[in-house]
Fold each of these.
Amino acid sequence: MINYDDILSDRCVKLKPSGIRKFFDILDEVKGVISLTVGQPDFVTPWHIREKAIASLEDGETYYTSNDGILELRQEISKYLNRKFGLEYDARKEIIVTVGGSEAIDIAMRAVLDPGDEVIIPVPSFVCYGPIAELASAKPVFVNTFEKDKFKLTPESLRNAITSKTKLLVLPFPNNPTGAIMTESELTGIAEVIRDTNIIVLSDEIYAEMTYGRKHVSFASIPGMRERTITVNGFSKAYAMTGWRMGYAAAPHEITEQMHKIHQYAIMCAPTTSQFAAIEALKNGDNDIADMTAEYNRRRKLIVHGLRKIGLPCFEPEGAFYVYPNIGGFGMTSNEFCEKLLHEEKVAIVPGTAFGDCGEGFARISYAYSVNHINIALDKIEKFVRKYR
Amino acid sequence: MDTLLKLMETNAHLTPSQLAVMCDMKAEEIESKIKEYEEKGVILGYKTLVDWDKTDREYVSAMIELKVSPQKDLGFDRIADRICMYPEVQSVQLMSGGFDLLVLIEGKTMREVSNFVFNRLAPMDGVVSTATHFVLKKYKDKGVTYNSEEEDKRGNIL
């Protein structure tokens, strides 16, 4: 008999599974739940994009593409990054089309990290950065962001976290779960801290299209930062294409050259059908983004206003499609609050602790749901809050 | 685009205060704006979309293409106005192409609808010919899909 304890990778066994699984398992068992948990758009991918994918299948486009993706797609990505964020990337050498933004994060970290390197990760943020850094033999260093700072990364807290071992800084803005963004001047402040170092930046800009009231600023567009920045973006959120698994990384050739090798051996290429869909999205999808973002913005105002009216303090999120209300003051942990809310009012929201210990006292609420759905949920949350306040 | 009208067109149930938040306006402003729209006839009314197939009401509907000879000075307006008078008539539209007026009719039975066409529409002065198409099944109407299960297909992924 094999003793699995002896044969499995130590590094993998020690990796913590995502903390939210338990909550989602409970959620699956309760019937008739109004859920506000999902981290993906409620829109179906626009039909003209789906149609192009279907046409590509009819045309027999069923082969591998070049490792880095169809050249036309990379050219469209290059144009898009220039049109929207003023970035310049060579489509032939500096862009890799990946299986979602997640793969781009993975190969970026593996391309730059060595054992002992430290990776600075502002939290709360999406759960993948720490584990992927660990898999690349590096050490995650978590830097808390706070409600009083609108959950932005401040130059002071970054400076305090930097050591001689710091190799990489993750910039997860617009942020999941808080909805925080970083403005141009705030990013410039971050740039000043790292300008004279060798620290590389992984800027995860998957929610770049979902900002409200001001345009997203790409970290690579801050003077002097392009040479050290790996920009990660993708189609999942902007074009409601989560299931297609389409993302990309753009970075100086010296970095993409290394990422290319990992991608080539581990992935080969992103799915061909999805790449054809992505070309159509970039060519003719600007209006879809505008329509969907306008709708998210209306829901955002509705839910922020609703939560504040109920008496749940809620910082004004300026990006992504989440609100991150403060649910402290009920004598319950975030987990208890969310489980009770689920059992008693059948409304599901994600406890902040799913994003690390710093999320205690908060919850993530997604507004990737219809206005009706949100209004029903708000009524139920109000009932719950009145009962326990 | 008028955000207020667009929101109200898709959901007439939203309260003025909810609309206000989404439109960056005050609730009182929303109320007076709605009143203004109603007075100007921009907002013509509020109705409920019913899927009658899910009830025990006997119900058929038909679209009727009418060829009409236009009248001097009045064009199609007078005959269209007269067709509008019948309560069975749900909509009347002047069309481009192979016929002139498209009339939507509702009734209890096919016989009732047929009788209406034979006895009322066809003999009207100016009506040259009619072609009646009974509706067999409604898939989508006024932007709403019928008979579709509202199922959230998204998996629970953080």
Note: Residues 52-137 of chain B form a domain with the Alpha-Beta Plaits fold (CATH 3.30.70.920).
Amino acid sequence: MMKLRRDVFQAIADPTRRAILLLVTTQAMTAGAIASNFDTARPTVSKHLQILTACDLLEQEQRGREVYYHLNPEKMKEIADFLEPFRKMWDDRFNKLESVMKKSITN
Amino acid sequence: MERKTKINAEEGKQELTITREFDLPLALLFKAYEEPEFIEQWMGTKVLKLENKKHGSYLFETSHQGNVMFRANGTIHEFIPNQTIIRTFEMENSEIGVQLEFLEFEQLTEQTSRLTMQVIYRSVEHRAIQLKMPFAYGLNMAHDQLQQVMTNLI
């Protein structure tokens, strides 16, 4: 169980993956439609989709010849209650503070 | 990697504590909160106003392609260099509302320091909104469609 939880955190630690999750909040989308929102190469986006699907944040649905991705709200709710994204935001911010101030001495 | 930033948010309380140990002398850490040019660099926002004194106020604003994406303001209640800042913080057009912040700056060694932020929200529900926000944070705002999604969510 702990391992699974960590995987979910790794999944949402990446900004592109968070952006993908937001994209599919309003509608199910194909991999191609999702990829068209990013400058990143298509295989990179596919990799992100794979990771998000592997930890159950995204679900695949076959419609005719196309595979659509949609959000798994149950899983999203589970992680929304965790503090990790908030902690990560502050950690990033403070890392920036530290590097800015270190640079100010050397200049 | 070691987790330098710690968050303590007790169940059922309307406050949280953020603690961080810095690889910086105390004076330098405080400067990061005191001088607009440094705030602009590490927070990635423009400092339109900052009066570091009792009864002073501040205003931060971030624009992207001519649109205001983020605006925050507050009033300063206490400003003791290298020690304490007590202030309110309000992110404009957000449901979080006004929060009260107690910032304590401490020296650990000559080269290291600690910041403890106690943040008090209007209610447990307001704190919960804050904790869910970072999902929307750090996105590439350049994408119009993403902006649209963001607007729908907020």
Note: The mean pLDDT of chain A is 83.
